[in-house]
Amino acid sequence: MEWVVVDYGEVVCHPPSQDAVARIAGTVGGDPAAFWDAYWDGRAAYDLGTVDAAGYWGELCGRLGRAATPALLEVLVRLDLEMWSRLDEGTLQILRDLDARRVPLALLSNAPLEMARHIEAAPFAGLFRHRFFSADLRLAKPDPAIYAHVADRLGAAPADLTFVDDRPANVEAARAAGLRAFLFTGADRLRLDLAL
């Protein structure tokens, strides 16, 4: 195992709780289910960095019948960061164990600029020798080019990268690009997959 490359959302952190989704939906007066649909419909462009926060949240608010004022935009960005900040202690312990064994770690996340900077400022970010974010790269999983970019930046052959993600499409694309890849279903399973 030359490098272990992990996703952030729903691997390093837990998925947003129902309460967190209801809280952010309430700021725009939307039903949580309608909000969540609108949230994901425009998220790919936001994660890719082709739409900024004002554009993404403005479109979402408009779809739900609310104007996106600067004050509301600030609240939405903050709540978005908060709902993706419940860390999975089981995963973090695995990362600490790998780091203690001197296994180099990298993070690869589809994340907008605000989320990327938030993650980089977190205490756990120091576990990763490299952190790659879709909005910075203007590439996103499962595009094969992102896996090639990561391998190139790490100076490693794709076969020397072990990749972990919670989305089957991202895992399949990584395997097709030559990486050893595991679907994350929980920290206990990941520990077995990595033979720790």
Automatic annotation (TrEMBL):
Acetylation is among the record's keywords: no
InterPro entries: HAD-like_sf (IPR036412), HAD-SF_hydro_IA (IPR006439), HAD_sf (IPR023214)
Name of one Pfam family that matches: Hydrolase
Keywords for this protein: Hydrolase
UniProt KW Hydrolase keyword: yes
One function term, GO molecular function aspect: hydrolase activity
Listed name of the protein: HAD-superfamily hydrolase, subfamily IA, variant 3
Organism: Actinomadura verrucosospora
